[in-house]
């Protein structure tokens, strides 16, 4: 297997799908000549031409709606949101329409649409470029929502997303586009609704997705120095959610910490905590805890920003707390 | 003969020599601060820069009609020329650039270029494109409801007119004859996307669709912009409703410090536009009109350099906000 960046994995998946299936096309701001502001589509205009790599005006509602119309006609559009933050402008199209067309047509019409782009923050772009939208989009039946973190999963989940007959919200870890990992060549799909055990351990379960998986892996290494073996679960798929893998892990470790970049209230971590207490209550030796972003719009100044996102130290500290090892 | 004709241009607009020199200083200060910001970025001291370069004439020409602290402005991220005309300083810009506690816009919370001042009625700019226009129209409605003659200046680039919010705001303003001026600085690009992939038809023509006048103006000619803006402000103050101004200009720098514009535009094109630099043009006018000579020009340059140097030093030494303060201003604080 070759080592590739997150960015390359993403492009590879889209390129292979565009080669395989003529109905796949890309739309978004600056994705053509420029190759995308994060260079995800670099070179694709030359390869596939401007009928399939379409530079849109700055009209998120407009081009998302247009993509829904294309998808209903049998095309397979992949829409780039320059960042997910701009998807609020297109929220009606996504939530009220893409997510409902199949249901409200009694199953007659489908919307095989992928919307992708960077999600989350940590790179000093302040609050209006920094939202983490997993629970926001994860809330709505009719949408599938994924947030992969390894380049291999990025490729596998993008291919699965393009082939899926439903609208898929593809949340990329924008801060990690340059990170590397092994990526299988050619046909490689990763199914929805299947979590990944990123690290095995028996003492405490750390549940995360996206960028926070790496944070948990680093925290797990620190804990290992003190003889604590943390299991790290990468959810990958937010909706559908793999409850089984989480429950199985908690049955083994009896303790869990759920980590997310987004705010504490009404987040994915709250969902994880609820599922654990519903399905593994008798196995728990401590309350399930959450590590989340501070309850404030993400500030710009680096020192303030760092205060507002979950840190390795916090994860270590909370893991110790559920193990009743006060620090 | 040519000289006397140029002289008449400002006189006909009711501008005296002091006005001209003030306008020139605002433009030059905006430019020199901007250049300094790029240097600080290259030195690794500033994480993000977004520029006004090339658009100073459009900004200062329009803003010179504002009554600071009375009229309202919804600037966009390039509008350093507007906020400087209203009274913001080099220090203010640099404190914001370096995200210090004293940053007057947001205390280090918002990105640079997102101006905000309660005192000057500068409404905090939003990072998502185009969302300012409906709000600007609401402010104009408030002026009208209170029977005041305030005017709202709402600004954006040509690509902001692709957003639904812009059209909704134009329609609302047209229905209620509101005292709002839509100032569109058409600098040909939206990051990499050129005007021909962004704008169907002509922006200026769209005003007719909403029932009020649209005027196109050479955005690199500060007096031309001042003239059309003056008419628009007078119209608004008379209660006759909105105006759309499309100022044709050019973005002289990359989109921002995160961009490499060599990926999508030819150097020759940039060089051609540099010859039409609005500051150069105004300077030539001022020389022709006898308002500026070489000595005076140097004197102004030096004053501005000193101001920018002082501001840089001040901002670099200014403290960051206390991390604990990050939690403030999310909600109203208890008395
Ligand atoms: C809703 C939204 N979509 C996309 C962006 C990303 N973006 C920031 S500036 C910009 C270009 C804007 O072009 P224009 O309005 O012409 O202004 P200019 O930067 O050229 O002055 C884009 C696409 C954004 N900030 N908000
Ligand atoms: Mg533009």
Automatic annotation (TrEMBL), chain A:
Keywords: Oxidoreductase, Thiamine pyrophosphate. CDD domains: TPP_PYR_E1-PDHc-beta_like. Transmembrane segments: none annotated. Coiled coil: none annotated. GO terms for molecular function: magnesium ion binding; oxidoreductase activity. InterPro entries: THDP-binding, Transketo_C/PFOR_II, Transketolase-like_Pyr-bd, Transketolase_C. Gene3D superfamilies: 3.40.50.920, 3.40.50.970. Signal peptide: none annotated. Pfam families: Transket_pyr (PF02779), Transketolase_C (PF02780). Its cofactor is thiamine diphosphate. Residues 4-179 form the Transketolase-like pyrimidine-binding domain. PANTHER family: PYRUVATE DEHYDROGENASE E1 COMPONENT BETA SUBUNIT (PTHR43257), PYRUVATE DEHYDROGENASE E1 COMPONENT SUBUNIT BETA (PTHR43257:SF2). This is Alpha-ketoacid dehydrogenase subunit beta.
From TrEMBL, chain B:
Keywords: Oxidoreductase, Thiamine pyrophosphate. Residues 24-323 form the Dehydrogenase E1 component domain. GO terms for biological process: branched-chain amino acid catabolic process. It comes from the Bacteria. Its cofactor is thiamine diphosphate. It catalyses: N(6)-[(R)-lipoyl]-L-lysyl-[protein] + 3-methyl-2-oxobutanoate + H(+) = N(6)-[(R)-S(8)-2-methylpropanoyldihydrolipoyl]-L-lysyl-[protein] + CO2. Its EC number is 1.2.4.4. Belongs to the BCKDHA family. The branched-chain alpha-keto dehydrogenase complex catalyzes the overall conversion of alpha-keto acids to acyl-CoA and CO(2). It contains multiple copies of three enzymatic components: branched-chain alpha-keto acid decarboxylase (E1), lipoamide acyltransferase (E2) and lipoamide dehydrogenase (E3). This is 2-oxoisovalerate dehydrogenase subunit alpha. The lineage of its organism: Bacteria, Bacillati, Actinomycetota, Rubrobacteria, Rubrobacterales.
């Amino acid at each position: 297997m070759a080592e590739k960046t997150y960015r390359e994995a993403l492009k590879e998946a889209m390129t292979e799908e565009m080669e395989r299936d003529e109905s796949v096309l890309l739309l978004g701001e600056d994705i053509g000549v420029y190759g995308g502001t994060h260079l995800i589509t670099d070179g694709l205009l030359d390869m596939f031409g401007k009928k399939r790599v379409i530079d849109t005006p700055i009209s998120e509602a407009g081009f998302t709606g247009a993509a829904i119309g294309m998808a209903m006609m049998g095309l397979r559009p992949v829409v780039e949101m320059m960042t997910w933050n701009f998807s609020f402008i297109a929220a009606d199209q996504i939530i009220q329409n893409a997510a409902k067309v199949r249901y409200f047509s009694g199953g007659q019409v489908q919307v095989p649409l992928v919307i992708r782009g960077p999600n989350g923050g940590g790179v000093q772009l302040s609050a209006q470029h920094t939202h983490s939208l997993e629970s926001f989009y994860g809330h709505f039946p009719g949408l599938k929502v994924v947030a992969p973190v390894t380049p291999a999963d990025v490729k596998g989940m993008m291919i699965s997303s393009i082939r899926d007959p439903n609208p898929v919200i593809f949340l990329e870890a924008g801060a990690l586009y340059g990170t590397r990992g092994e990526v299988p060549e050619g046909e490689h799909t990763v199914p929805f609704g299947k979590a990944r055990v990123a690290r095995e351990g028996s003492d405490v379960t750390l549940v995360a997705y996206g960028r926070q998986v790496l944070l948990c892996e680093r925290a797990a290494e620190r804990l290992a120095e003190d003889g604590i073996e943390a299991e790290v679960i990468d959810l990958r798929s937010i909706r559908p959610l793999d409850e089984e893998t989480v429950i199985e892990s908690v049955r083994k470790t009896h303790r869990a910490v759920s980590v997310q970049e987004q705010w504490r209230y009404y987040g994915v971590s709250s969902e994880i905590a609820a599922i654990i207490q519903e399905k593994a209550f008798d196995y728990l030796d401590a309350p399930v805890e959450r590590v989340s972003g501070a309850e404030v719009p993400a500030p710009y100044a680096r020192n303030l920003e760092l205060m507002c996102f979950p840190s390795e130290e916090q994860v270590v500290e909370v893991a110790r707390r559920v193990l009743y090892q006060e620090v | 003969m040519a000289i006397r004709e140029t002289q008449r241009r400002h006189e006909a607009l009711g501008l005296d020599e002091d006005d001209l020199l003030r306008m020139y200083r605002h433009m030059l200060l905006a430019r020199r601060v901007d250049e300094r910001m790029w240097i600080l970025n290259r030195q690794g001291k500033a994480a993000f820069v977004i520029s006004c370069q090339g658009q100073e004439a459009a900004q200062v020409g329009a803003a010179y009609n504002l009554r600071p602290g009375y009229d309202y402005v919804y600037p966009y991220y390039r509008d350093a020329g507007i906020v400087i005309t209203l009274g913001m300083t080099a220090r203010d810009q640099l404190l914001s650039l370096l995200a210090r506690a004293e940053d007057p816009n947001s205390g280090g919370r918002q990105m640079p270029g997102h101006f905000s001042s309660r005192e000057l009625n500068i409404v905090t700019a939003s990072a998502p494109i185009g969302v300012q226009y409906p709000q600007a129209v609401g402010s104009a409605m408030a002026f009208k409801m209170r029977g005041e003659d305030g005017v709202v200046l709402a600004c954006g680039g040509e690509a902001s007119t692709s957003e639904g919010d812009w059209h909704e705001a134009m329609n609302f303003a047209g229905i209620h004859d509101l005292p709002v001026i839509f100032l569109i600085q058409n600098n040909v690009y939206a990051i990499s996307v050129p005007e021909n992939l962004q704008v169907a038809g002509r922006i200026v023509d769209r005003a007719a669709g909403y029932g009020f006048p649209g005027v196109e103006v050479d955005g690199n000619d500060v007096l031309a912009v001042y003239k059309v803006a003056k008419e628009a402000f007078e119209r608004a103050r008379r209660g006759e409703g909105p105006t759309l101004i499309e100022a044709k200009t050019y973005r002289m720098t990359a989109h921002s410090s995160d961009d490499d514009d060599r990926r999508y535009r030819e150097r020759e094109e940039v060089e051609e536009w540099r010859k039409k630099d609005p500051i150069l043009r105004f300077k030539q006018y001022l020389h022709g009109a006898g308002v500026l000579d070489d000595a005076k020009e140097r004197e102004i340059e030096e004053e501005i350099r000193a101001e920018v140097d002082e501001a840089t030093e001040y901002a670099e030494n200014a403290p960051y906000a206390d991390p604990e303060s990050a939690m403030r201003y999310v909600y109203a604080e208890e008395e």
